[in-house]
Amino acid sequence: FPGSAEPRAPPENIAIIGAGIGGTSAAYYLRQKFGNDVRIDVFEKGEVGGRLATVTMQGQEYESGGSVIHPLNLHMKRFVKDLGLSAVQSPSGLVGVYNGETLVYEENSWFIINMIKLIWHYGFQSLRMHMWVEDILDKFMRIYRYQSHDYAFSSVEKLLHSLGGDDYLGLFNRSLLETLQKAGFSEKFLDEIITPVMRINYGQTMNINGFVGAVSMSCTDPGLWAVKGGNKLVCSRLLQASKSNLISGSVMSIEEKTRTKQTGNPTKVYEAVYQTGSETHSDFYDIVLVATPLNRKMSNITFLNFDPPIEEFHQYYEPLVTTLIKGQLNSTVFTSRALDEFDLGTILTTDNPDLFINSIGFVSSVEENNNPQPKADRAHVWKIFSAGPLTKEQILKLFVSYDYAVKRSWLAYPHYTPPEKCPSIILHDRLYYLNGMEVAASAMEMSAVAGYNAALLAYHRWNGHTHMIDQEELYEKLKTEL
Ligand SMILES: Cc1cc2nc3c(=O)[nH]c(=O)nc-3n(C[C@H](O)[C@H](O)[C@H](O)COP(=O)(O)OP(=O)(O)OC[C@H]3O[C@@H](n4cnc5c(N)ncnc54)[C@H](O)[C@@H]3O)c2cc1C
Ligand SMILES: CC(C)=CCC/C(C)=C/CC/C(C)=C/CSC[C@H](N)C(=O)O
C-alpha cells in the first residue's frame, strides 16, 4: 500500500482468456508488473493470434486477418524489436475507386500529378482531411506517455477523455458522417474518398464513430508495415517471453468462490471452468482477464452467481469474408483502358448495393518485402473483402482466369452505431475486460493498448495504488516529467 512498509504479496495465479494480440500483450505486461512468482495461464480455444492469422496458398502464407500496422503504432513496433522479429513494408500500389460503373478516382504514380488531380476533383479537402487525422493521431500518441509512466484507466471513455478532453470523447459519440459534414466536407468527397476507405477497412459506412473513422483514414498514410513471417508471430513470441502457460481449451464459465489458501485465510478467487477436447476441468485464479469479445457467438462465457450479475453483452460483430485468389484480374470490369496499361494495386468501392465486394487489392506473401506493380496481364495474388462468401460466378466476373482461391470468414469488427457506451473494463473486483476498447476502434494497436492498460489496472488495484488510476489532467501533469 502507498506509504506502508509491507507491499502486498503478488497474486498466486492469473488467467487470461484469449491468445490474440490483446491477451498476449496483457500476459507480457502482467509478467513485467507482477514478477516471476505469479503463474499466468492463457486459455485459447482456437489458434494463437486470434484475428491475426494467415492462410497458405501454394506453399506461401498470406495475412487473412489483421494485416497492416501504422508506422506510429509504437507498441507493435516495440514488440517486433524486443521479440527479435522484423518488419516488411506493406504493398502500396496505386489506388482506384470504383462505383459499380466506372473508376470515379484513380491515383497517378507521379506525386505532383496526383496532387493536381485531387485538387481538381475535391479542392483542398484531402489536405484538410489529412490535417484532421494527424491532429487525432497526435493526441492518441499521448497514451504511450501515460502508459510509460504506469497510469491506467478504468473505462475506455476515461482513457479517450484523457487524450484530448470533451472534443476527443465527442468524436467517439458522434458518427463520422456528422463530424465531417459539420466540418464542411462535400458529399462528393465523402462518397468517393472517405466511404470507400471505411468499406475496405471496417466493411461499414460513414455511420461509424469519428474516432474509428480517423483510425481508418490513418491507413492511407505512407509507411504501413507488417511482421515478417506473419503478424501472429508477435502473439506466440509474447506468450513465450511472458513465460505463460498456454492452455488449449475453451473457457465456459467464471464464478467467484471463497477458498482457504495455505496461509489459512479465506480468500475470494475465481473458478474458471474450461473444456479441452471432451474433458471438462476447472482451476482457481486470483485475477482473471477476458481478452475476447464477450458475446455468445464469439466466446460464449457465462458469469455464474455474481451479485449484482455481470451484464450480458450483445455487441454485434460484422461478418466479413477475406478471399485470396491467384489469378489474372479482368481489368475490363473496372476500366476500358488497355490491359497492359492497368496499373492499379487496390480498387476501393463506393456504397453501391449492387456491388458484391468491398475492395480488391494486390498482396504479397508474409515473407516478401518487395513491392512490384501488379500487371493485369499476369497472374498475381489478390485479396478481396466482401460481406458474404463469393460465388464462382462472381469470381469469374472479376478474373479472366484463376488457379487458386482460398477464403476465411470472420466476425471481424464491432458494428459501430454511435452514440454507444463502451463496456466497463472492470467487470468485478479482480475481473477485467479488454475488448470494450474495440467499441472505440478495432485495430491490433488498440488491443495492445487495452492489454497494457488492463495489466496496469490489475496491478494497481491489487496493490491499492488508486492514485495511478483515472488521474485527470495527466497530459498537463506529465508535461514537466522527463
Ligand atoms: C479481416 C480482418 C482484417 C483486419 N485488418 C487489420 C489491419 O490491417 N490492421 C489492424 O491493426 N487491425 C486489423 N484488424 C483488426 C485486428 O485484427 C483486431 O482488432 C485484433 O487482432 C483483435 O485482437 P484481440 O486479441 O483483441 O482479439 P482476438 O484476436 O479476437 O483474440 C481473442 C481470442 O480469444 C479466443 N477465445 C474466444 N473465446 C474463448 C473462450 N471462451 N475460451 C478460450 N479462448 C477464447 C479466440 O479464439 C481468439 O483467439 C483486422 C481484423 C480482421 C478480422
Ligand atoms: C490505432 C491507430 C492510431 C492506428 C491504427 C491504424 C490501423 C492500421 C488500422 C487498421 C484498420 C483496419 C481494421 C484495416 C483492415 S483492412 C487492412 C488492409 N487494407 C488490407 O487490405 O488488409
UniProtKB/TrEMBL annotation:
Keyword Nucleus: no
Cofactor(s) annotated in UniProt: FAD
EC primary class: oxidoreductase
Catalytic activity: an S-polyprenyl-L-cysteine + O2 + H2O = a polyprenal + L-cysteine + H2O2; S-(2E,6E)-farnesyl-L-cysteine + O2 + H2O = (2E,6E)-farnesal + L-cysteine + H2O2; [(2E,6E,10E)-geranylgeranyl]-L-cysteine + O2 + H2O = (2E,6E,10E)-geranylgeranial + L-cysteine + H2O2
Pfam families for this protein: NAD_binding_8, Prenylcys_lyase
Entry-linked InterPro entries: FAD/NAD-bd_sf, Prenylcys_lyase, Prenylcysteine_Oxase1
Keyword line: FAD, Flavoprotein, Glycoprotein, Lysosome, Oxidoreductase, Signal
Keyword Hydrolase: no
Domain Prenylcysteine lyase: start-end pairs: 106-471
SUPFAM superfamilies membership: FAD/NAD(P)-binding domain
EC number in record: 1.8.3.5
Compartment list: Lysosome
Primary location: other
Protein's job: Prenylcysteine oxidase that cleaves the thioether bond of prenyl-L-cysteines, such as farnesylcysteine and geranylgeranylcysteine. Only active against free prenylcysteines and not prenylcysteine residues within prenylated proteins or peptides. Involved in the final step in the degradation of prenylated proteins, by degrading prenylcysteines after the protein has been degraded.
UniProt similarity note: Belongs to the prenylcysteine oxidase family.
Protein's name in the database: Prenylcysteine oxidase 1
Organism encoding this protein: Balaenoptera acutorostrata (Common minke whale)
Gene this protein is translated from: PCYOX1
